[in-house]
Amino acid sequence: xxxxxxxxxxxxxxxxxxxxxxxxxxxxxxxxxxxxxxxxxxxxxxxxxxxxxxxxxxxxxxxxxxxxxxxxxxxxxxxxxxxxxxxxxxxxxxxxxxxxxxxxxxxxxxxxxxxxxxxxxxxxxxxxxxxxxxxxxxxxxxxxxxxxxxxxxxxxxxxxxxxxxxxxxxxxxxxxxxxxxxxxxxxxxxxxxxxxxxxxxxxxxxxxxxxxxxxxxxxxxxxxxxxxxxxxxxxxxxxxxxxxxxxxxxxxxxxxxxxxxxxxxxxxxxxxxxxxxxxxxxxxxxxxxxxxxxxxxxxxxxxxxxxxxxxxxxxxxxxxxxxxxxxxxxxxxxxxxxxxxxxxxxxxxxxxxxxxxxxxxxxxxxxxxxxxxxxxxxxxxxxxxxxxxxxxxxxxxxxxxxxxxxxxxxxxxxxxxxxxxxxxxxxxxxxxxxxxxxxxxxxxxxxxxxxxxxxxxxxxxxxxxxxxxxxxxxxxxxxxxxxxxx
Length: 486
Description:
Number of strands: 7
Largest sheet: 5 strands, mixed
Number of helices: 21
Radius of gyration: 25 Å
Strand order of the largest sheet: 2-1-5-7-6
Oligomer: single chain
Shape: elongated
Strand content: 5-15%
Order of helices and strands: HHHHHHHHHHHHHHHHHHEHEEHEEHEE
């Protein structure tokens, strides 16, 4: 199986490397850039009250960025490599669990699964979570065969590493239990899993105290359903236009096809009374999803599609095993349809504007329109992510509203002075960019700044009251650049 794993992994690496530079950085990636480049004391000062769940990743990525820099192409190479390795190791895991046909089919599915492939162009931990998930299951499979203490210790170590990288990866213990039970290795599995749990206790406790930072996650049943059924595996990180875009139809069709394949495999497994691989796949994909979606629906928001990227290899095993049980012609035909449906989504993922925010386009707005002596006000502090991601485009543009920097405040972006305390004297005669959150205008009211309507943004309102003239408004996804001359 090694040749097939190497070929599929190498092809995925080449595709990921060639296309890594195309998608724009977005908000979460800008957060990675600002935190991972800090000194250890400054990083730990932030992690003490927010984002501890990503602390280990920030350390790893910080070391990587210190070598390769922050340009999207080299910066994303860690994720590209992780996804390629995940594809290769999925082949090996499938072969060890159920034979070479399962391994090859699962590897090809992994190469085309949007919910896994998108992670290669993401400057976040998601790609590494998928890789560690497969490696953890491989370590467990080896332990169940060898039965030695070092082999079980390696499994415990891998599960610990996966949990420290991203705490929800602790849910890997569920499919791990299914594998251990299917091979009657319950006792050593319980001991090694408890050891991993004890070693992971500090990160579990630290993150549990910060769960409020994701209170913004939607608990609406419709959103949860779309995320779990379509976004999680068949779209990847949903862009802002996800379900209003033609590729949504392909994602829906891919979901229907995959559910049909899994349903058929469920029937075939129980008919043949060979359900160990089915049990592992369901425990890897369905149960973690049900747990996080259920907690979110009950009022404790913890579910986002990307949080469960580590379960994607489990779906690849389920689909791959189903295709392997079919006749060769039928299996290849259905796999071909799967790949054809996935291709438009994968191509869309490589576009600049696929992600929730298009920071590259916003940076170009500033670069193309700035004049000597231009100033900028970040009305929404999250807009600081744009110059963090693309600093060259903001060269020569003065930040005139900064109150305290991110290092002083131990936050992602720092703080700005209130609009009513803004020093207007240093803005006279200058061009001013105000980067604000995009707001959909009320149809019953006039557009902001027109027909006598007062601008809703306090900074723009203050500048207009002082005689500044709003010359242009450019909205790019969730951010809008207001360009004024004072």
